[in-house]
Amino acid sequence: GPSTAEVVSLRRQYMNPGIFAYYKKPLMLVEGNGQYVYDEEGKQYLDTFAGIVTISVGHCHPKVVAAGQKQLETIMHTTTIYYNPEVALLAKELISKMPEGSGLNRVYFTNSGSEANDLAVLMSRMYTGAYDMISLRNGYHGMSEGMRGLTALKNWKFAVPQAFGVHHALNPNRYRGPFGYDDPDSAHKYANDVKDLIDHATPGKIACYIAECIQGVGGTVVLPDGYLKEVYKHVRDAGGLCIADEVQTGFGRTGTHYWGFEGHGVIPDIVVVAKGMGNGTPIAAVITREDVAMTMKTGLHFNTYGGNPVSCAIARAVLKIIDEENIQQNAYERGEQYMEGLLKLQKKYDFIGDVRGKGLMIGLEMVKDRVTKEPAVEETLQVMERCRDMGLLIGRGGLLGNVFRIKPPMCISEADVVFALDVMDRAFGEL
Ligand code: PMP
Fold first, then answer.
1. Residues 424, 431: contact at Cβ < 8 Å?
2. What residue owns the CA closest to ligand 1's atom 1?
3. Are 84 and 310 in contact (CB under 8 A)?
4. Does ligand 1 come within 6 angstroms of the Cβ of 132?
5. In this structure, which long-range contacts are made by residues 343-348, counting pairs with CB atoms below 8 Å and at least 24 apart in sequence?
6. Per-residue DSSP letters for 266-322?
7. What is the ipTM score, two decimals?
8. Is 272 in the pocket of ligand 1 (CB under 6 A)?
9. What is the C-alpha separation between 91 and 109, in angstroms, rounded?
10. Cα of 372 to ligand 1 centre, how many Å?
11. Quaternary arrangement and interactors, per the entry (predicted)?
């Protein structure tokens, strides 16, 4: 095939310049195996960003590959106007993963998280007859025409005006927000901000509230315990539906629960899943109660590829692997190991301002000064490049671009975590 240089040139010549790439020196990946990926020279990298939190059970997992291959050879496309066993069976298996008694029992498949969120908010507007929606500042829900309004990253300059009817509540960021880790009442205060918005910025009746329980792109901001419970009450008092965006936090990644919201003791009205579900293959879903699902009977909605048989066969294999290979437990154990190691590094290096997360969804925030918390963006980029040289891929994000995002495939081993911590230590040491 073409070399990295040739591919870079092809991309420059033929692809939209808005598509950006990580790393100054272009990195082309030609092969993947479990938690590892390989460039054209055969150099191995430990992928601790898992694509973008998409590779849940490992690159090219043999059972995932076999399921996809088999389906490609059987029938690769039907659309929803015909019945297909893989699609219906996946719906049943996905529902079986919802908490007992949640009533979450209907699935609508789409291709991406953005589409699924679009559909979720559409259902909430149809169900409630209300228009206003609340999301969190610093939240990420997609880049579709609908989701650009809900996604709220201060430093992302959108080309279009924000959508009407969208209100952004305070980001419950206890590292940088007005109510910090040392405030025992922070969850309550952040929840009150949602109530304030409902009271002052809406007609008092809202369609929905949507949030990630750990903000992903926004830099692994963990919602405080007790926050969602209070917010859900305010939202329901205003007639709104509660939407859990589990695109990054689902399928065991938080370690303690299959779904992130379970760790907060709440039951959403709508759950949105994507990314890890297809292990990198495009598939997403909106999961609702039956009464919410019924709204879709009154108007036409259609999605040509949503829930295509190949992606569904692959997702079925993924769900099975998560159970068979104890993936959630591994996410918990490796998460603890990572956290312990990163906290040690924080003691060693002043520029590590905050380490936070749950399971294998970890953030490390780089600052120039622990008191002023001035973001160390250049330093973050430098460490990222050095890690890459040493065979470690790592994600980056956050409001200010100074947060490392560590979300590896959940099959990562103990030795891998030791390697990752060692490489990070060396890269930090060079700063
Ligand atoms: N929600 C969350 C929490 C996400 O992280 C993302 C993608 N980064 C999306 C929604 C949008 O998903 P997609 O890119 O598949 O449209």
1. no
2. 141
3. no
4. no
5. 345/421, 345/424, 345/425, 345/428, 348/425, 348/428
6. ---SEEEE-GGGGTTSS-EEEEEEHHHHGGGGGS----SSTT-HHHHHHHHHHHHHH
7. 0.99
8. no
9. 9
10. 31
11. Homotetramer.
The amino acid that residue 342 corresponds to is: L
Domains of the chain: 4-57+328-429 (3.90.1150.10), 65-324 (3.40.640.10)
- Residuewise pLDDT in 10s, the chain (431 residues): 999 999 999 999 999 998 889 999 999 999 999 999 999 999 999 999 999 999 999 999 999 999 999 999 999 999 999 999 999 999 999 999 999 999 999 999 999 999 999 999 999 999 999 999 999 999 999 999 889 889 987 766 665 667 789 999 999 999 999 999 999 999 999 999 999 999 999 999 999 999 999 999 999 999 999 999 999 999 999 999 999 999 999 999 999 999 999 999 999 999 999 999 999 999 999 999 999 999 999 877 899 999 999 999 999 999 999 999 999 999 999 999 999 999 999 999 999 999 999 999 999 999 999 999 999 999 999 999 999 999 999 999 888 899 999 999 999 999 999 999 999 999 999 99
> For residue 276, which amino acid is it?
G
